[in-house]
Design brief:
Blueprint: H1 3-26, E1 40-47, E2 50-51, E3 54-55, E4 59-66, E5 69-71, E6 73-77, E7 83-85, E8 92-100, E9 106-114, E10 131-137, E11 155-158, E12 163-171, E13 181-191, E14 216-218, E15 232-241, E16 246-256, E17 272-281, E18 288-296, E19 301-303, E20 309-313, E21 315-316, E22 319-320, E23 325-326, E24 329-331, E25 334-342, E26 347-356
Parallel strand pairs: 5-14, 7-15
Antiparallel strand pairs: 1-4, 2-3, 6-8, 8-12, 9-11, 9-13, 10-12, 13-15, 16-17, 17-26, 18-25, 19-26, 20-23, 20-26, 21-22, 24-25
């Protein structure tokens, strides 16, 4: 048997064994994170041969390597629109997802940074900062911030392919106007998987040639404000203020007097005067809730208890119509009434009467 024949047969056997090994690897389930770091992959080649017509003992050889650790993660805002907030709102919440696409469990440090002007996340422009910014993890994965439960400020022991929701909270100043925007960025940074309940140390990338142990490679892409392959990722979101735009006007008209009665009455002592309070909320504004008024009765007049207070009065041309339902109260010299909610683009009125002393 020639040496060339033996070499050719050896190569064919090796190729067959390699194909089987690749096929076996390909049969494993595929995950985004890939094969777990630290996994040992072994390949065995078997060499069969004969001398003359007699089969000889097969020869085998193994090769084993260890899968290294790939550090990768994704931060994304939850939803695709800005977070609408009200002036004076405390603990306004916007949410992000943090997904561990590494091939190992990791901790993740979290940080929220406010933007100093410029483009926000949703075709808008940042022009203010929220205050008292805080970051919390959705511990029980129910998608709702619960102050007594969601107290963790870092992600602990997140498995490969695992994801967590992160809430960013901030307070909106009472003076903010409709259309004001506060943009911010959440950054998650990979940390070593330490003990449960304790944030691990910073992750370090392996330098130099591949070693026999578990090396670490940063594989993340650049986020909104962080760089490429820095073991971190970031995404933007923003708060957009939507305020109610209420206006109130108060007018009066004489209803009758003791001499002219209802025919061209005058504002003389004994005259009955009706007040109209018109409340309007501009179109495109937020609904104003729990709207109420207090109105002290002016000096030299007496409240008309017989007429009472009428609520839900329709407004025509900025003045009250002659409708409404009884409500409100009078006490300590003032009229009080709660008219409930006033939606954008709507108006409501209040009527009551006094007699000139």
């Amino acid at each position: 048997m020639s040496g060339d024949f033996i070499m050719t047969r050896q190569l064919r056997l090796f190729a067959s064994a390699s194909v089987l090994a690749v096929a076996a690897l390909g049969a494993s389930p595929a995950f985004a994170a890939g094969t777990a770091a630290g996994t040992t992959v072994t390949n065995t080649v078997t060499l069969n041969y004969s001398v003359g017509t007699v089969a000889q003992t097969a020869i085998t050889d193994d090769d084993t390597f260890t899968v290294d650790r790939k550090i990768n993660l994704t931060v994304a805002e939850v939803g695709t629109t800005t977070t609408t907030v009200s002036p004076g709102e405390a603990d306004a919440i916007t949410a992000f997802s943090v997904t561990n696409t590494s091939n190992a469990a990791l901790d993740f440090a979290l940080g929220a940074a406010q933007q100093a002007g410029g483009a926000g996340a949703h075709s808008n422009t940042d022009n203010f900062d929220v205050s008292n910014v805080a970051v919390f993890v959705d511990v029980n994965d129910n998608g709702t911030y619960e102050s007594a439960t969601d107290t963790a400020t870092f992600i602990d022991e997140l498995a490969a392919d695992g994801s967590k929701t992160v809430f960013v909270l901030g307070d909106v100043a009472l003076a903010r106007l409709t259309g004001d925007v506060a943009a911010l960025t959440l950054t998650a940074t990979a940390r070593e998987s330490g003990s449960v309940g304790s944030q691990g140390a910073a992750v370090t990338e392996t330098s130099g040639a591949n070693t026999a142990g578990v090396d670490t490679v940063f594989a993340d892409v650049a986020g909104a404000t962080d760089g490429n392959r820095d073991a971190a990722h970031s995404a933007k979101d923003d708060y957009t203020v939507l305020a109610a735009n209420l206006s109130v006007s108060k007018t009066s008209r004489v209803i009758s007097d003791p001499f002219n009665l209802t025919t061209n009455p005058k504002m003389i002592p004994g005259a009955v005067v009706e007040y109209c309070i018109a409340i309007s909320n501009a179109a495109g504004s937020a609904t104003a809730t729990n709207v109420s008024i207090t109105d002290p009765i002016p000096a030299n007049t007496t409240y008309d208890a017989g007429f009472g207070i009428l609520l839900g009065v329709t407004i025509t041309g900025g003045t009250c119509d002659t409708d409404g339902t009884a409500g409100g109260s009078f006490g300590s010299g003032q009229v009080s009434a709660n008219v409930g909610n006033v939606t954008a683009g709507s108006s409501t009125g209040i009527r009551f009467r006094v007699t000139v002393d």
